[in-house]
Amino acid sequence: MTCRIGFVGAGNVAARHARVLSGFPDVRIVGIADTDAARAAGLAREHGTAAYGDHAALLRSERLDAVYVCVPPFAHGQIELAVLDAGLSLFVEKPLALDEATARRVAAAARRRGAVTAVGHHWRYLDVVEQARRLLGDRPVRLAVGVWLDKVPPVPWWPRRDGSGGQVIEQAVHVLDLARLLVGEVTEVSAHESGHPPDQAEGAVGAATGALLRFRDGATGILGATCLLGWKHRAGLEIYAEGIALRISEDRLVVDTGAGRRVIVEAGDARRRVDRAFVDAVLRRGTDVRAPYDDALRTHRLACAVARAATSGAPVRLEDTDG
Ligand SMILES: NC(=O)c1ccc[n+]([C@@H]2O[C@H](COP(=O)([O-])OP(=O)(O)OC[C@H]3O[C@@H](n4cnc5c(N)ncnc54)[C@H](O)[C@@H]3O)[C@@H](O)[C@H]2O)c1
C-alpha cells in the first residue's frame, strides 16, 4: 500500500517534510503546489514530481490520499476546506490560521468528514516529553513557565501581524501546546505586549509578550516571548511540582529533585515520528497521531486568547466548548 501525498506550500517546512516522507518506502510525493511558481518547481524537481500554481490545480490533477498544508498563517482556510471536500486526509503545519474563526470552520469540516488529520506539533513526539510526564506522575503541577526567546525569522510574512499573527500564535504555540499536554487546560489569560521589532512599520508584530495563565486544575502559568534577539536563545517549558523541577526543550530535559541536576539529552527524532504517525493513520496501520486538528484547535484558541489579551489589555476567559 502506498500513500500518495501532495503539498500546498513549498517553503522551508515543506522541504523538511518532503525530505522525511521521501525516505518512507510506502509514500509517494505526487505533486507540489505553491503560488510562487519557482518554489513549486524547485521542490518538485528535487522530488521528481509535478509542480502546480495553486491547490485547486493540484487537487484537480492528481490522485491523492493526503495533503500537507505548509503555507504561512495568513493563507490557511480555503486550502484545508478544499482538501477535506475532496475527501482527503489532512496534515497542517502550525499555526492553524491567523485567527480562531478560520480554524473552527476547518475543524467542523474535518469532523463532518471524519477525516484523518494531524498538526505539526512535533514536540509531542519528543522522548523527553514522555520522560517528563513519567517523572511528574500524578503530582499536581503548581507552576509552569514557558519561554520563546528568538529572532525575527527570515521569511517576509513574519514581521506583520496580518502575515503571522504575532510571535505567540506563530512560535510560542509549541510551548502552549506542551503546557496543555503536561499541565492541563487553561481557563483564563491576561497578557501585555511591548514594542515592535526594529525597522518595522505600522501593523508589525509585538517585540515582547508577557502572559499570565490560570489552569483549570489550579496551576499558575507564565509565558514570556521576544523576537528582539539576533539568534534563537531559548524555547521551552519549565514545570514545578512538589519536590521536582523540570526544564523541557526540544533537545533536552533537565531534572532537579534537590539531589543534583540530571540532564537527559533528546535521542528520538520527533520530526520524523510526526510524519510517520500521520502516514500510518492514513494507511489505517496506526493510531499515534498525537495532535489531531481538533486538539490543536484548543492550543490555537489558547494562543489566540493570549494574543487578544495582549493587544486589548483585558483578561480573556476560554469557555469550555469544542465547537
Ligand atoms: N513545526 C515546525 O517545526 C515548523 C517549522 C518551520 C515552519 N513551520 C510553520 O510552517 C509554516 C510555513 O513556514 P515556512 O518557513 O515553510 O514558510 P515559507 O515562507 O518558507 O513557505 C511558505 C510557502 O507557502 C507559499 N504560499 C503562500 N500562500 C500560498 C497559497 N495560498 N497557496 C500555495 N502556496 C502558498 C509561499 O509562496 C511559500 O513558498 C508557518 O506557519 C510556520 O510556522 C513549522
UniProtKB/TrEMBL annotation:
InterPro entries: Gfo/Idh/MocA-like_OxRdtase_N, Gfo/Idh/MocA_Oxidoreductase, GFO_IDH_MocA-like_dom, NAD(P)-bd_dom_sf. It comes from the Bacteria. Coiled coil: none annotated. It comes from Streptosporangium brasiliense. This is Dehydrogenase. Residues 147-242 form the GFO/IDH/MocA-like oxidoreductase domain. Residues 4-121 form the Gfo/Idh/MocA-like oxidoreductase N-terminal domain.
